[in-house]
Amino acid sequence: MNTSALENATPERTVVRNYDSLIQALRDRQTELGLTVEKIDELSGLPSGYTGKLLGAAQMKAIGPLSLGLLLETLGLELVPRPNVEATKSMSPRWEKRVRPSHDAQRLSSRAKHRKFPAILFRVLGKRSVKARMDKTTEEQRSAIGRRAAIARWRAVRKARRSRRSQGKASG
Asked: Which residue from 14, 48, 64, 83 could staple onto 25, CB 3.0 to 4.6 Å apart?
């Protein structure tokens, strides 16, 4: 089948309004093209058997952002959002216009998010690495680690006290 025939064809498509209708639309396209799930896996680069888990009757896995893009490309589909007239009529009375913050406030909140995210990420990763290290060490090794940490903390405390004393003598 040549590409111009594909571009001009306008077959009746499933209207996608929820996850189940998305799955049905993908199944319909698979049937239309006559592709097996194994062939879709091969063409898309998904693991063997994965498409069957996504589109099969049991739906053992849910479609995520990565697999959705790969499936759409492999099946030659694209999602084109358009207004649903019926839903718009029923929902529009309940819609409230949002009030956008000033440009400066929006920019500041964006910066704050970017600064906060790495700190949260590093805190979580740090806790995981400490747990993994503790699981691999013996009780004697953990005791030695704790002892060295305590010595280092007290060394820092003594150093801070000395510097405060020397600053007090210099100013007095």
From this structure: 14
In which residue ranges of the chain is CATH 1.10.260.40 found?
Answer: 7-81
Contact status, residue 30 vs residue 75, Cβ threshold 8 Å: yes
Q: Which structure tokens are listed for 37?
A: 């799930």
Which is nearest to 41 in space by CA: 55, 25, 58?
55
| Least confident piece of the model among 57-71, 72-86, 124-138 | 124-138
* Beta carbons of 106 and 75 less than 8 angstroms apart: no
Which pLDDT score, from 0 to 100, does residue 5 have?
Answer: 44
Domain 7-81 has CATH 1.10.260.40: yes
pLDDT of residue 127: 80
Q: Is 84:17 a contact under the CB 8 Å cutoff?
A: yes
Tokens of residue 151, six digits: 């010595």
Average pLDDT over residues 51-56: 94
Which of left, alpha, beta for 45 (phi over 0: left; psi -120 to 50: alpha)? left
pLDDT at 48: 93
